[in-house]
């Protein structure tokens, strides 16, 4: 059995045997002086360009045009005087090449048969033609190994397992169009986000990932040690406190797209390392940030799909268009649960409601109980994109108190497909109240809340120099891809962390 007729799945022993054979071919290439890994090959065009230029070529036609191109061998058929192969470009497009005795000579044809394997990168030079069956092809006049593959490809007709895809993403990209599409979609999303921000006169900045004090979110951080400074440092859980410093300094519209790290669980919507967008606008509020977020998401969807109605990987269509609903957390909870919860409802009453609903809360506070009850009664039924407005004050220590409703803050969470995609605030800019909130968080930390924020004196000092009224928002880039493609978070991250 030849490798070109490989079985559904190669055993470890067969892979080992193939590796030994391929290493022998590598030695032959090197000893011949041709080499198995040249520094370059004389490419004149790409597979994509040939396919687009000659898309309408007639059957059994010779163009008279000679090209030089390269690709990975993903199919090979060996004949006596004529060999066929399919070369695949990085974007997945393929082109047939024909290696004939009449064009390349006996020695070159024999070398092709003996030295070329599936997975090799090969350079070919020859005339663009259409075969007798109408297949666009290159009739090879000269060829060379561009990079010898030592291990065989997985079977191209059988999908890799979910675990195999994330552990060997390079193979996933070779064999699966959805994987290649997701990479392109992510690039299109990031480009769209930056374009939208530029149109609103935002500036993109970079803030520290190593921080002496973690903050800007309620999350458990990763810690490390700096030998140079002989101090404990934290991988950031959010860029918020530094971006707000930029607003204090006069950068009125600022954003950052970068990595965050949270030492928490991993599931279909969470990853310990993830990409995050945060943005702040001086003299804005949470309503304006909701408008901006809707625009960002809808334009990103159009950049990927050409429409605000997107098609997920399973074929389901989801409509991201139109004006999105805005609902009150307390009002929607009461309507769904048949209760009368207010920001003043005692914790004891909320504990009773939680017990009735079978909801458990670690270190229960008013805010945490309300949010858990809301998730139990309301979240599961959200289908359309929805802004959930006005959260309890004790769960949002960096948010301004509501201008008219006592006991809540001007915060929203955006839910799409039943998961939280983004959050937005009217930012707390009063340094005295901010200090009080930090002190309250420190008390929670003292009671064992590992996600409580520490008291950050340097940030408070910045606020004391005066921060204008500001709106802010944060959105997970990986989750935005989930909303547009319907994939899980490990699919939207190119190289996710795995054990």
UniProtKB/TrEMBL annotation:
Keyword Phosphoprotein among record annotations: no
GO biological process: lysyl-tRNA aminoacylation
Source species of the chain: Glaciihabitans arcticus
Protein's recorded name: Lysine--tRNA ligase
Cofactor note: Binds 3 Mg(2+) ions per subunit.
UniProt keyword annotation of Protein biosynthesis present: yes
Subunit structure: Homodimer.
Family: Belongs to the class-II aminoacyl-tRNA synthetase family.
Highest taxon listed in the record's lineage: Bacteria
């Amino acid at each position: 059995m030849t490798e070109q007729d490989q079985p559904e799945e190669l055993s470890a022993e067969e892979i080992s045997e193939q590796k030994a054979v391929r290493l022998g071919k590598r030695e032959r290439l090197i000893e011949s002086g041709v080499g198995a890994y040249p520094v370059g090959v004389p490419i004149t065009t790409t597979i994509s360009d040939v396919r687009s230029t000659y898309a309408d070529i007639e059957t059994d036609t010779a163009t008279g045009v000679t090209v030089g191109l390269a690709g990975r061998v993903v199919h090979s058929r060996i004949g006596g005087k004529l060999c066929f192969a399919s070369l695949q470009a990085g974007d997945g497009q393929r082109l047939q090449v024909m290696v004939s005795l009449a064009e390349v000579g006996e020695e070159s044809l024999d070398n092709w048969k003996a030295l070329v394997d599936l997975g090799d990168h090969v350079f070919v030079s020859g005339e663009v033609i259409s075969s007798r069956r109408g297949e666009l092809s290159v009739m090879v006049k000269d060829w060379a190994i561009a990079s010898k593959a030592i291990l065989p490809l997985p079977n191209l007709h059988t999908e890799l397992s979910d675990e195999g895809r994330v552990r060997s993403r390079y193979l996933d990209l070779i064999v699966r169009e959805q994987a290649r599409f997701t990479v392109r979609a992510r690039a299109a999303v990031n480009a769209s986000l930056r374009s939208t921000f530029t149109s609103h006169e935002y500036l993109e900045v970079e803030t520290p990932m190593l921080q002496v004090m973690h903050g800007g979110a309620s999350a458990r951080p990763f810690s490390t040690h700096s030998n140079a400074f002989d101090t404990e440092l934290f991988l950031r859980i959010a860029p918020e406190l530094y971006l707000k410093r930029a607003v204090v300094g006069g950068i009125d519209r600022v954003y950052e797209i970068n990595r965050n790290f949270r030492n928490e669980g991993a599931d279909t919507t969470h990853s310990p390392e993830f990409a995050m967008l945060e943005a702040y606008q001086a003299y804005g509020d949470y309503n304006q940030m909701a408008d901006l977020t809707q625009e960002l998401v809808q334009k990103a969807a159009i950049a990927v799909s050409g429409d605000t109605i997107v098609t997920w990987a399973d074929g389901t269509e989801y409509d991201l268009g139109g004006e999105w609903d805005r609902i009150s957390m307390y009002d929607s909870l009461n309507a769904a649960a048949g209760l009368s919860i207010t920001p003043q409802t005692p914790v004891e009453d909320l504990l009773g409601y939680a017990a009735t609903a079978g909801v458990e809360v670690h270190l229960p506070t008013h805010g945490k109980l309300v949010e858990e009850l809301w998730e139990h009664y309301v979240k599961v039924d959200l289908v359309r994109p929805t802004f959930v407005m006005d959260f309890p004050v004790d769960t949002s220590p960096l948010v301004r108190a509501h201008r008219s409703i006592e006991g809540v803050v001007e915060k929203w969470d955006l839910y799409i497909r039943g998961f939280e995609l983004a959050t937005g605030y009217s930012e707390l800019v009063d340094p005295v109240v901010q200090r009080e909130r930090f002190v309250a968080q420190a008390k929670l930390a003292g009671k064992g809340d590992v996600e409580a924020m520490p008291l950050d004196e340097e940030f408070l000092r910045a606020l004391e120099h005066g921060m204008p009224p500001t709106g802010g928002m944060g959105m997970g880039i990986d989750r935005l891809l989930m909303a547009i493609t319907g994939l899980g978070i490990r699919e939207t991250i190119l190289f996710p962390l795995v054990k």
